[in-house]
Each structure stands twice: as C-alpha cells, then as structure tokens.
Write a structure and sequence with these properties.
2 copies of one chain form a homodimer.
Chain A lengths: L2 H13 L24 H11 L7 H21 L3 H10 L8 E2 L6 E2 L1 H13 L5 E3 L7 H17 L6 H22 L2 H5 L3 H18 L3 H12 L12 H22 L15 H5 L6 H4 L11 E3 L9 H14 L6 E8 L1 H7 L7 H4 L3 H11 L9 H4 L2 H7 L2 E5 L8 E7 L4 E6 L12 H12 L5 H12 L9 H5 L4
Parallel strand pairs in A: 5-6
Antiparallel strand pairs in A: 1-2, 3-4, 5-7, 7-8
Helix pairs in contact in A: 2-10, 3-5, 3-7, 3-20, 3-21, 4-5, 5-6, 5-11, 6-7, 6-9, 6-11, 7-9, 9-10, 9-11, 10-11, 14-17, 17-19, 20-21
C-alpha cells in the first residue's frame, strides 16, 4: 500500500460513519502532505538557461576537452564492431540517410538514428570515460547527441561553435552526474544501468542549451527525458549494453526536439511524488543536485579507461600487467592466483566462462589471466581471439577472487603462487586511470591513436586528434565528426 | 546494500583472516544463489513463436476486433489535438515522410515516427480501452506499432493479412497484460505509467510475430523492449501522458527491428536479478505470466471507455449523468455534492482547479460538476471550453469527495444536497463500460461515429468502421490505416 493509499484508508475509516451527513468533513487532496522536495527540475532548467562558456573555469574547459577527445577516439575504434554493423543494417529499413555521419563509417543517417549508432560505437568497447562516484560514463549519451544536432545545424547554415559545443557538453555531464549522485548507489544496485538512465537527462540538457530553449521548455525537455530511462544491468556482456547509451542519446534528442516545439510535460518530473527520483530509486538526496550548482563541476572527476572493459576490473589488471613485466611470467609458471577484491567485482564481472569478446569484458577470470600472460589489456586482449586462446582458458580457471566489503573499488591485492614455490604479491591502492593516477594528455593521445588507427588511416586520425584538442577554437564543432567519417 | 553485496560482505569477513594462504577458499559467483525465477522471457518467446490465428477462440477474436475498432475511432478523434500538431511539426526536422500515414491527417512519416504520432493520437483523448485489473490501456502502444509495420510491409509488396494482424494484436495485449498482472499494483503505485512501461513489451511481442522472428530473436526483442520502459504518472494531465504509449509503440518497433537483424540482448531480461521485474517492481508474481498461457486470454477482460477521461472517474460520472437526467438538475439547484470514492480517485484525479481540457480529464471536481450540469461527459465536456465555463467552475468547488479503501474502483456513492432541502442519492456498483456492464457493439459504433466524425467526413468514417469490423477478412490490414488518413 502506498503512503497516499494508507493515509486515505485511515482517513476513510474515520469518516465512514458520518458519510452523507451535511456535516461530513471532506478529504480534499491538498490535505495529503507530500514529502518535501525542492523544485529540482526548475532549478536545473534555470541553471541550464543561465550557463555561459565564459563562466566555465579553465580546468573545467580542459576536462571537457579531454572528455570529448577520449570519446571521439574510442567511438572511432568501436565503429566497425559487429553490433554497429547489425544496427546500421537493421535501421536502414526506416532511417533517413542524409543528415548526419557515423564515426569511422561511410553511411549517413537521420540525426535521431545517427545519435543512436554513434552512441553504440562510443560504448561498445567499454573503453570510454567514467565518473567513478556513480560509474556513469558521462560522454556516452551526451556527445553523440550533441554531434548529431551540430552536424544537422551546420547543414542548415547555423553552425554550432566549438565553445558552445563544449559548454553544452559540460552542462550535460553536470546534469547527469548530479542526478546520478542523488540516487547512487541505490538506483544502480536496484538494477539500472545508470549511464543509460541518467544519460537521457545529460543529452536533453546539453541539447536544450544548444537549441536555446527557455526555462519552461528546458524543464519540459527534462520531463520528457525522465519519461524515457534506458537500460538494465542484465544487459552487461551483450550488445544491449552499448544499446543503452545509444538509445539514451536519441531519447534525449527526441525529448529536446519535442520540447522545443512546445510539447509540454510537467515541470516537476524529477522530484514529484510519481516522478523520476522516487520511482527509480529508494535514495533521493536532493542536495546532491543543487549544492554548488555552477560552482563545483562533476566533470573534474571524470576519468578515462586505460583498459577496454568493466571499470571494476582495472585494479586487478593493473596488478597483473605489473607482475607480468616484473617477472616475465608465462602460463607454465603459474599455479594459482588469489585476489582480494571489492564486492562489485563479482557482482558485475563474475563471468567464469566468457564465450565472446563482449562477455570477456565482464570476466575477472579472463581479465586477470590474459593480463598476466600477455602483459597488456587492450582491445586485442578482449577480442574473440583472446577468449578462445587455450593458455588464457587454462589460466583463468586458476584465478580465485574473494570479495571483501572493506576493499574499495579502486583497490586490489593479488597473490600469485608459482610452481617453483615462490609467491608474488602486488597491492594496488589506486588503479591506473583513476582520479589519483589520471591518464595524462599523452596517455590519451596514445590511446586515441592506437584504437582509432585500427579503423581509419593514421593521417586522418592525427587530423581528428588535432581538431578535438582545438574544439574551443572551431567555428563549427561538427567539423570533427565530418573528419571522423569515411569519405 | 543489495542481497548479493550483503552475502559477499558476510563471506568476505569470514575469509579475511585466511587470505593469501594457499588454503583460502575462493568465493566464485556461482556460489551466490539468486532467487529462483522461472525463465519467463524464454517462455513468452516460445509462446509468441508458437501462437497461431487458428488457435484463438471465437470470443478472443471478437474482443480483438472490438479492441482494434475502438482504438481506430478514438485515434481518429484525437488526431487534430494540439499535442499531435506540435509533435508532427517538431518531428518534421528529421523524420522521413514516405512510409506510413497518420490517422485523421494528411502528413506521412517514417514508420518509427508514424507509430509514435498515431500512438499519441490514440491516447490523447483518454478515451481508449482499459484492462481494469492493471489499468493498462492495451491497444495504446500495440496497435499503432502494428499499423506502421503493416503499411510499410504492404508498400514492399508483403501485405500483412487481417488475420495475422489480429493475431499479433492479441499476442501483444496478452504479453503486456500478463507482465502487468505480475507487477501490479506495486509497479503502478511506485509511479510508473504502466501503459507505457508494459506497452513496449506488447508492441515488441506483436511485431516479433508479424516479422516471423525465431525464439532467440523474439527473446532479444523482449530484452531490448525491457531496456526501454516509458512513462511516469507525474505526466498525467499534460501532453506527456499520451507521449508514453506513443513512445512505447516506437520503442517496441525499434526493439523488434534490431532483434530481427541479429542485435543481441540477454534471454533473461524480464526475470534476471538485474532485469525488468526486480528493478521496476517490488512485486514479482511470475505465475501471473505463465499460468494458462495460450489457454486463458487477458483480452477478454478488455473494456472500452464511455467517457474520455481517467477511468477512475467513470463511476462518479455515471452517477452524475443519471442524476441529471432523473432530476433535470441545474447549477442553481445544487448546494453541495458528497462522494464516497476509491482512494485512487484522489490520487490520480485530485486536480481541484484544472486549467486545460487535458487537465480536466484528471479532475473529479470538474468531471462531476460538468456531468451534473450537462448530463453528458463526452469530448465536449473535457474541452478547454468546458473548463472555462463559469457554472462548471462554480459547481466544482461544491464537489466533496471522500476516499474509502473499502470502495472498489468501479463503485461510487453520490449524495447531492439541493437548495430546496432535498437530498438525491445514487449508488453505482459497476460503472458503465466495465466488464459487468460492457459497451455493446452498437455502443462502440456510436462512440466511433461521434468521435471520428469531428475529424473525418461521415462517409469515410462509415467505411473505416466497416473495414475494422471485417479485419479478419482483409488481405491487407493496412487498408484500414490508408482509409483513415486524409487524401
């Protein structure tokens, strides 16, 4: 029984005897108090409308640029994966073909479907950025939605400048991460793929800014975004995982486009009793949304994966790669590998016998085995080839993780028993790529170049990298996407 | 803390002392038991693949035809509402224009956007069908998705026969209502607009059948549908309410189209630990999904609204219309109106001062006042005109509903105090239009004719009505939609 039903029931029983007497007390709905919630939908809409590029601190602009840079490289790298091929072929039956390009590919689609497909490409390698407080991948839904809109606008003669693009990106990341902070971890623990559910807000928020919507329409865009959450964690290890941010991108674009035309929603959709936060989470920490809005930026907490797989695997991979390099390990040397890990490691990446590259991104057994054997953990180590490698399969059965609630997600302890009786130990306090050991710009350069060069010619990759670093100086942000497609 | 985290924590503490000893016991993920759930995703996929038109009992085929008939009339009637005008104009920026028609309109769109817009039109008047066990509007997402696909198939020379169309409709309704039964009322009480959240499944299921998907791909279609629930109850009274089944229709079409191309999901998305039922509901009654599947049909419980507004208002309107007719009531005669109502009446329709026709569909105060004054409750009584009528405004402040948990949703007691001292009383045990007092075929004829004639010429309306009743004999089901558009 809901709170309102329970209250009504009690009120009803008390009044039953007096019904139909002229003195009966009515029970108007206003007498039923709701839990007090600040008007966060309007607060966010007001913030979005008021935000300006000139208000962004240098560090925020810099991190926004790194976010864009990392997404673009990873999306190009993912552009030829099977999931993308299938999606492009399936959508051809109804998609338009002229409005927006697909990174790393020859085809063009209408903006809605281009946002979806580029969203798939950016997430399919599980190599994108991570807001570790919420495990949201902030760029995943936001950037493809902004790019599709920017390219379409340019064709209509109204270019989106690079600085406007970056401002919208920062806004989108801010909105999705603040909403994420307000409901994490309950919302994620319940089963939601938080990147998809909050990503719709991020895309709608950034687009509301680019479209120049007023506060009322921005609130409606957020309301229509709230109506379209995407993604459940059961999808992990399947094509459906990257579907989630892809569809979040097109849902955000759909929401903002309708709101721009005057399609109305509630202006309390995030905080209302039957609204997003109370329906999709048992935790509602409204202060996380409103405190320091416009002062403190969540994008400063963004991180970039050094390894293309579930982020909770990164400490163990970091340890395994180091142990391999320090000890020139081979499969024949290793008797057993013990790990102390955070509980999320087995909850999210407990696949014991992955059958595909996609599944291997969610297997602690595979990740540790392949990293110990090959001293690396790039796209080659999470491919169908690696999953079928006999020495990897043999070693992964010797990997024995044990979960401890006291081990933080960025930590691991690894103990490798060798057949010669030696024991090798490695403790990681902060996995490489995290906030404490961030990827440098040069690390990001190397990552972009390596992953994108598998799909596009090196000279073209270099040109795109250059454009991404210079985003704030571009008169037309969609120049990046045009350079990132195949002619 | 989730169940899995709690178990892991306990296991972790117990093992902490022994870590890194060769005798340490590992904690593989297989050792963590999940709550047992039957494989409902696969069970439903198997049912969908095996279903045949020849298996449908006569009564089921008849009710499927009535469901189609009622949706078509109501959708034509809603086709010129402001929400539809706005959506069509906004979508024009990116939608294709050639694939599918819009009921009651001249424009054409690509199938995905046509399914959305026709979905809006079918629900915007709040005049459609209702599965009272769950308050799902079964046709709302299913029929527009099937029509868009059927019309596109016909253009490609592969007509969907009327009997195949009706089979897919029955399947779609069956799947969405069974999933609804399994989670109602908890899922709805939490804040979800159940028509949108389950409607995605209904549309995907019906389309999987029409597309001839095998069991694996049908399960993926259901998985991608599960990833895209639409709609929160905070939207009620705004354009966002009809957005929900509209987007559910296009989401279902999107899911089935991708699955048809081989885009993979989990085959346990409905029942898995981080799947749809456990993430979106505190109640999971799996038997409601599987018991008597293919034997007992939920569509036999479908009902058709006699009044274009929230279904929980219908008993009170029924009483008010009867009292008006029996007593020739005018506003000047009435001192006060007391009502005993189910708690949902104030939870869903507690709007005291509606400002628009859309909002008035969720106001017990308006509905009772206008029905007492005008002796009717059609689209004219829930229009902007009616909301601004001074005598309605004056009377609605005298309407005093009191909620009682013991009053069933289909019941009401109304007591009208007159200025001359008389008291008029009316008790409704089963509102008109419910399962116990169903709309007859002639009632449906009159409803269709009245509502659709406001939008299309009467001769055209008669032709469409005839085609709908004959659906099972049509070689091409999309003939209906082609006749229902403007040339």
């Amino acid at each position: 029984m809901t709170e309102i039903n329970r209250r009504s029931f009690i009120a009803g029983v008390g009044l039953a005897a007096g019904f139909a007497s002229p003195s009966v007390r009515s029970q108007p709905v206003a007498a039923i108090p709701e839990r007090t919630a600040p008007p966060v939908t309007e607060i966010l809409a007001s913030y979005i409308v008021g935000a300006r590029h000139s208000y962004l601190p240098d560090a925020v602009r810099k991190e926004g640029t790194r976010t864009l840079f990392n997404w673009t490289g990873v999306a190009i790298g993912g552009a030829r994966e099977e999931a993308i091929d299938i999606a492009v072929a399936a959508l051809a039956a109804f998609a338009g073909t002229s409005q927006a390009g697909l990174v790393g590919r020859r085809e063009r689609l209408d903006v809605m479907n281009a946002a979806f497909v580029n969203g798939l490409a950016g997430h399919v390698l599980d190599f994108d950025d991570t807001h570790l407080k919420t495990v949201i991948h902030p760029a995943a839904a936001v950037v493809p939605a902004l790019f599709a809109y920017a390219e379409h606008s340019a064709a209509a003669g109204k270019c989106v400048s690079g600085s406007d693009f970056l401002t919208a990106l920062v806004i989108g990341v801010e909105i999705e991460c603040r909403i994420g902070n307000a409901v994490y971890p309950d919302h994620y623990s319940a089963g939601w793929h938080i990147t998809g559910t909050t990503g719709v807000f991020g895309a709608a928020a950034g687009l509301s800014k680019l479209m120049g919507l007023d506060q009322e329409k921005t609130a409606w865009a957020l309301g229509l975004a709230a109506s379209q959450p995407v993604g459940l964690r059961e999808s992990f290890g399947t094509m459906n995982k990257s579907f989630n941010p892809g569809r979040a991108a097109s849902n955000g674009l759909f929401a903002a486009s309708l709101a721009a035309g005057g399609f109305a929603s509630s202006n309390r959709m995030i905080e209302a009793k039957a609204g997003w936060m109370r329906t999709l989470s048992t935790k509602q920490d409204y202060d996380q949304i409103t405190d320091g809005l416009g002062q403190r930026y969540e994008i400063l907490l963004n991180t970039y994966k050094p390894f293309p797989c579930g982020i909770v695997l990164h400490p163990a991979i970091d340890a395994a790669v180091q142990l391999h390099k320090e000890n020139k390990l081979t499969g024949a040397m290793i008797q057993r590998v013990d790990l102390k890990v955070n509980p999320l490691v087995l909850e999210l990446t407990g696949q014991t016998t992955p059958r595909t590259g996609l599944e291997s991104k969610f297997s602690i057994y595979h990740a540790v085995a392949v990293a110990l054997l090959e001293g690396a953990a790039g796209t080659a180590q999470f491919s169908d080839r690696a999953v079928q490698d006999r020495s990897v399969i043999a070693l992964r059965t010797k990997v024995k993780p044990t979960v401890f609630a006291t081990v933080r997600p960025e930590e691991v302890e690894m103990s490798v028993m060798l057949n010669d009786g030696r024991r090798l130990f490695k403790r990681i306090d902060h996995a490489i790529g995290g906030v404490e050991r961030p990827m440098s710009d040069i690390d990001l350069d190397r990552k972009f170049f390596d992953v994108a060069s598998c799909v596009l010619p090196q000279a073209q990759v270099n040109r795109i990298m250059d454009l991404c670093w210079k985003i704030e100086h571009l008169a037309d942000a969609s120049e990046i996407i045009r350079h990132a497609t195949l002619a």
